[in-house]
Amino acid sequence: MPIVSLSADNLLPLPAELVARLGLQPGDRLTVEVDGEGRLLLTPLRQPSAPSLADTINRKNLETPMQFIKGVGPKLAEVLAKKGIVTVEDALYLLPNRYEDRRQVVPLARLQPGRTEVFAGEVVSAEAVVTKGGRRFFEVLIKDGNSLLSCKWFHFNPAFMKKSWQPGRRGIFTGQVSQYGLQREVHHPEAEWLTEGETVEAAMARDPVSFGRVVPVYPLTEGLNQKVLRKVMKEVVDRFAPCVASTLPPAVAARHGLQPLAEALREVHFPAADADLRQLEEGAGAGHRTLVFDEFFFLELGLALRRRGVTLEPGIAFTVHHTYTKPLLKLLPFSLTAAQRRVLAEIKEEMMAPHPMHRLIQGDVGCGKTLVALLAALVAVENGYQVAIMAPTEILAEQHYLNIHHWCEQLGVTVLLLTSSLKGKAKSEVLGRVARGEAQIVIGTHAVIQDKVEFHRLGLGIVDEQHRFGVLQRGLLRRKGDNPDILVMTATPIPRTLAMTVFGDLSLSVIDELPPGRTPVATKIVSENRRQQVYGIIREEVAKGRQAYVIYPLVEESEKSDLKAATQMAEHLANEVFPELRLGILHGKMKPEEKEAVMRSFKERALDILVATTVIEVGIDVPNATVMVIEHAERFGLSQLHQLRGRVGRGSASSRCILLTAGKLSEDGEKRLRVMESTNDGFRIAEADLEIRGPGDFLGTRQAGLPDFRVANILRDGRLLEEARQEAFAVIAADPDLQLPENRRLRDELARRWGGRLELAGIA
Ligand code: ADP
Ligand code: MG
């Protein structure tokens, strides 16, 4: 403890150590309070952050429109704007998607297939050629010493080609080398022509942006030429990268070996002469890591704040009484899996804490999330609170209702169903019972969060199938009570890194175990023309007392005609293919009572085959169903296919899933179906989905209210995300409101990046 003493004129000189700890600058103001023990409490007043003049000028500079950059005319500016590049800051974050090593000119004899190389030589001949098969291409032969190389173009304008590729002309060329048999070829190389008598070295020195270095290759759109863009980018990086200030706490940057942002930007755009090409291509160099870390850090900082906003609020501290939970466990014909028990314990612990719970239960299809949720619901009911369970579709809400009601009836707990198809008197009666607190568990669709619904005492909100709800809806549910706990269930197995990002402000519980006795579903891709065989399989299973699903896709734009196809197909199957079997149809346009009747008869085995549109995608549970035929399987997304398939393989009998395909598959379509054939593991399927579709499309980060990534690649950079998250959460733990002077710049930068999206956390 440094000793301080008062001077004669009542000044209190502070030791440098204290000044630093409080982050004081000349002119800063403090409040001083005396506490009961005669100690002084010093609190620096947070100044309305006054950014330094240099910061202000730098920010202004970064907003310079691209059209003011040398080499950017109105046309190029327009093309760039279409790519979202309006200011120089946008351009700085347009990173190359690969690099070319143009440090050396390679003799023709030593060109390596598979690599992009730079070579020099003289044009020997240039002719349009027509193959025997009628294919046209343009061929140029290039010579250096005794070696010849063939360059080819497959789309070309002959007049234009003849004019530039004149025999005798010398140039420096760049292109990817390929090998056909013994011959090496380069397709559509780029050319830099030598002037009369000029040496290769002199020409390279003339264009130091494009030669003698590792050269960036930018993602292109039509109307952009690499060479032009490269020159523009060089100008932008040289002039404006120094304006980008690093706001990361210096200690964090040091711990992770990060560079100043300006240096990192320079390195990823125009790498140093001795750069490691492999590292660059993999985004593993210090430059890329710095940019990615920076991006993740501010994302996680915002998430940490948002989460802090939730956990610091007072919430309900439930007590576990076992009034209903114990009896339910006794009623169940099975015991909980270890994973269910673990997750339930995590939930209970958080429900008992005096802060609102905000937890995501993630688990593969059929792992028993609903049961865990019900047990959590019963804990709330035991404490005299109401529970709202929200499902994305009416049919799923109804199914939850049937399941949960089945158990709760035996426990003496009142469960009500509230959907938008409930009208008039029936509806007002339900609403009345909810408001009076007579309904202990209320299950419904988004109808549950409508204005008119009032709860007597809501203690827990459960949201099923999270990815269909936005953050907003979660918030609305929360406002139906006084900081109730929120539990979110998702059947979409989300790769961990992505879960952390998209749901970063939720705590995560994973049920990573299926109830015992489940057998993996044998999955096969079968072409339409073997349909009869597939019908044979259905017949066999039904003969064994099993049941089957036949699924039709409903594509939104053509919903009507697809619906017609599904109904027609059902009729065709009922009358011509399976006249001896009992067949039902289920689709989204049916009334809830009709749907429920059909579902119930299928469940009670009064139907052998259920022809359905994807309304059965989630939640339907009929363990006796052992075959699923998915028509036009190529039209479904991977996670949807996985959800659908999860409807079979729920009992101990071995089950099959047949993916019927029509016509030729697209490359992605084929990939998706092969993944389905090769694994039943939801996590592997989710990873594959992420790989095929890319993260943007996967859950919709925008829907989740998150900033977009500029440089990070969630698949590649998972490790960095975790590191950045730890650092960011540590900062918020030490300074929950980012009030400390040393965090002032962090706070400003955070507000700038997140815009209005931090309102809920009360910072912006
Ligand atoms: P999810 O919602 O996770 O897809 P469900 O909660 O619908 O899965 O559970 C699927 C089926 O497994 C239901 O029939 C449920 O009763 C049953 N089930 C849940 N937990 C167990 C368990 N521990 N042992 C056996 N069956 C279970
Ligand atoms: Mg479910």
Automatic annotation (TrEMBL):
Catalytic activity: ATP + H2O = ADP + phosphate + H(+); Couples ATP hydrolysis with the unwinding of duplex DNA by translocating in the 3'-5' direction
Main EC class the enzyme belongs to: isomerase
InterPro entries assigned to the protein according to its UniProt record, in alphabetical order: ATP-dep_DNA_helicase_RecG, DEAD/DEAH_box_helicase_dom, Helicase_ATP-bd, Helicase_C-like, NA-bd_OB-fold, P-loop_NTPase, RecG/Mfd, RecG_dom3_C
Gene Ontology MF terms in the entry: helicase activity
Transmembrane segments: none
Record's keyword terms, sorted: ATP-binding, DNA damage, DNA recombination, DNA repair, DNA-binding, Helicase, Hydrolase, Isomerase, Nucleotide-binding
Enzyme Commission numbers on file: 5.6.2.4
Pfam hit, one: RecG_wedge
Segments forming domain Helicase C-terminal: 530-696
UniProt cross-references to PROSITE patterns, sorted A to Z: HELICASE_ATP_BIND_1 (PS51192), HELICASE_CTER (PS51194)
Domain of life, per lineage: Bacteria
Helicase ATP-binding domain boundaries: 350-511
Cited function: Plays a critical role in recombination and DNA repair. Helps process Holliday junction intermediates to mature products by catalyzing branch migration. Has replication fork regression activity, unwinds stalled or blocked replication forks to make a HJ that can be resolved. Has a DNA unwinding activity characteristic of a DNA helicase with 3'-5' polarity.
Family: Belongs to the helicase family. RecG subfamily.
NCBIfam families referenced in this protein's UniProt entry, alphabetically: PRK10917.1-3, PRK10917.2-2, recG
Xref: PANTHER family: ATP-DEPENDENT DNA HELICASE HOMOLOG RECG, CHLOROPLASTIC (PTHR47964:SF1)
Name of the protein in question: ATP-dependent DNA helicase RecG
Name of the encoding gene: recG
